[in-house]
Amino acid sequence: MLSIALPVVFQGLLTNSLSFVDTLMIGQLGEEAIAAVGLANQMFFLISLLFFGISSGSSIFLSQFWGARNEKNIKRVIGLSLTTACIGASFFALASFFIPTQLMHIFTYENIVVSYGVTYLKIVAISYVFTAISQVLSTALRVIGHARIPLGVALLSLSLNAVGNYLLIFGIGPFPELGVAGAAIATAISRFAEVALLVYITYKKHPVLAIREKSSFQWDKTFLGLVIPTSLPVILNEMFWSLGMVTYKIAFSKIGISALAAVNVNESIANLFFVAMMGVSNATLIMIGIKIGEGRTDLARLYAKRFILIALGTGIGAGILQALLAPWFASLFNISDEVRSMAVYCLLVNAMMLPLKSINMAVIVGILRAGGDTRFSMFAEMFGVWAIGVPLAFFGVLVLDLNIWQVYLLLGMEELTKMIISMVRVLRGKWITDLTAVH
Fold first, then answer.
1. What angle do CA 102, 106, 111 make, to 5 degrees?
2. What is the reported pLDDT for 73?
C-alpha cells in the first residue's frame, strides 16, 4: 500500500504545494487576480476531472489485466484512454481559446476579473492536451508498480512551473513582467516538459505500456462492450461531480468577490491535506483490482475493510493538522483581514469534514470502482452532489443569506449522505465483478 500511496501523496503534495505558491505569487497582484485565476482554472478543473475519470476507468481494467498478465489488452485500454482524453482536451482547449469571455461570464461580470481570466485562459488552453497524455501514462505506470516515475517527472515539471511563474509574473532579470499572462505561459511550458519526459521514459523503459502497433487502437465490439459499460459511469461521475463543484462556485459568487477570494485561498491550502486521501484511494483501487484479477476475491473483501479503517485514520490525522495550521497558512496571503478570517473559518469547517471525505474517497473511488461496481459509485456521488449539495448551496446563499463558511458547513450534508449510501453497498458485499473473466 505504501509503495503505491506514498508516491501519489508526494506527487499530490508537490502539485498542490506549487499551486499554493502560484496562488501566493498571483495574490501579490491583488484579490481580483486571485479570483480571476481561480475562476479561469475552473475550465482546467473540469478537464482534469475528465482525465481523472478516464484514468480511474482505465485503472480498473489495467489493474485487473495486470493481475491476469494480459499485456495485449493493457495496451488496448491505454489506446482507448489516450483517444478519449485527447478528444475531450481538444474540445476544452478550443472553447478556452475562442470563447474565454463567455466562459468567464458564467461566474462574474466584474470587468477586471474577466480581463485577467481571459488573458490566462487563452494562453493555458494549449496545455490541456499535454495533460491528457500525461495523466493516462502516469496512471498506467502506477498500476504496473512504477509510481515513483510520475512522481519524479512531476517534481521536475512543477519546479519548472514555479520558477517560470516567479520569473514571468514579476519580470525578474531579463524576463518581462507579464503578471497573470506570465503564470499561464509558465504553466503551459511545464506541462509540455512533463508529457515529453513521460513519453520518453515509457518507450525507453516500459515496453508493456508503449503503443507501437495499430492494433492498440482497434477495438472490437466485445472489447468495447466490456470496457464502456464499466468506464463510462466513472467518466460521467467525474464530469458531473466537477460540474457540481463549478455550480458551487456560481453559488459562492453570489456572496461577492471577497468570498471567491476566500474560497480560492481555502482550496489552495486544503488541497495540501487532501493528497493523503488521494494516495489511499489510488492504492485501494489498484491493490483490490489486482487481487480480483488474480481471482482472490476473499482477499479483496478483506482489503476493502482494512482500507476503510485506514481512510478513517488518514482523514482524522489530516483534519487535525489542517485545523492547527490554518491560521498560519492564511497569514501568508496578501489579502484583507476580512478575507483572511473567512478563509480560516472555511479551512476549519473543511478540516471537520475530512474524515467523511476520506472514507468516501476510499469507498467510492477505490473499493466500488476496483470491483467494477461503477454504476452504483456514480449514483452515490451524483445523489450526494446534485440532490443534496447543490440545492443546499443555493438555499444557503439566496434564502438563508449565509456567509461563505456557514455555506461550507451546510455542504457537509453532501459528504454524510454519500458515506451512508456507499458504506451500505460495501457491507452488503455485492460489489465485486471479475472483468478479466468476462472477456
1. 70
2. 87
Placement of cell 481512510 in the chain: 311
Residue 143's pLDDT band, with cuts at 50, 70 and 90, is: confident
What are 179's three cell numbers?
503578471
- Within 13 A of 164's CA, how many CA atoms are on the CB side? 21
User: In angstroms, rounded to a whole number, what is the distance separating the alpha carbons of residues 415 and 352?
Assistant: 11
327-350: burial string, b at 16+ Cβ within 10 Å, e else? eebbeebebeeebbebbbbbbbbb
What rounded mean pLDDT belongs to the chain? Answer: 87
What is the gyration radius of the CA atoms in the chain, in angstroms? 21
**Tens digits of residue pLDDT in 17-72:** 666 676 677 777 777 787 777 777 777 777 877 888 888 888 888 888 888 788 88
- The dihedral over CA atoms of 73, 77, 82, 83, expressed in degrees to the nearest 10, equals 90
pTM of the predicted model as reported, rounded to 2 decimal places: 0.74
| Region label for 30, one of left (φ > 0), alpha (ψ between -120 and 50) or beta (otherwise) | left
Instruction: Tell me the residue type at 197.
Output: L
Residues 6+ apart with CB under 8 A from 111: none
CA nearest to 188, candidates 135, 130, 136, 132: 130
Query: In 3D, which of 78, 151, 142, 148 has the Cα closest to residue 289?
Result: 142
- Tell me the three-class secondary structure of the chain, residue by residue: CHHHHHHHHHHHHHHHHHHHHHHHHHHCCCHHHHHHHHHHHHHHHHHHHHHHHHHHHHHHHHHHHHHCCCHHHHHHHHHHHHHHHHHHHHHHHHHHHHCHHHHHHCCCCCHHHHHHHHHHHHHHCCHHHHHHHHHHHHHHHHHCCCCHHHHHHHHHHHHHHHHHHHHHHHCCCCCCCCCHHHHHHHHHHHHHHHHHHHHHHHHHHCCCCCCCCHHHHCCCHHHHHHHHHHHHHHHHHHHHHHHHHHHHHHHHHCCCHHHHHHHHHHHHHHHHHHHHHHHHHHHHHHHHHHHHHCCCHHHHHHHHHHHHHHHHHHHHHHHHHHHHHHHHHHHCCCCCHHHHHHHHHHHHHHHHHHHHHHHHHHHHHHHHHHCCCHHHHHHHHHHHHHHHHHHHHHHHHHHCCCCHHHHHHHCHHHHHHHHHHHHHHHHHCCCCCCHHHHC
Report the distance separating Cα 370 and Cα 58, nearest Å: 11
Can you give the residue ranges of every domain in the chain?
2-438
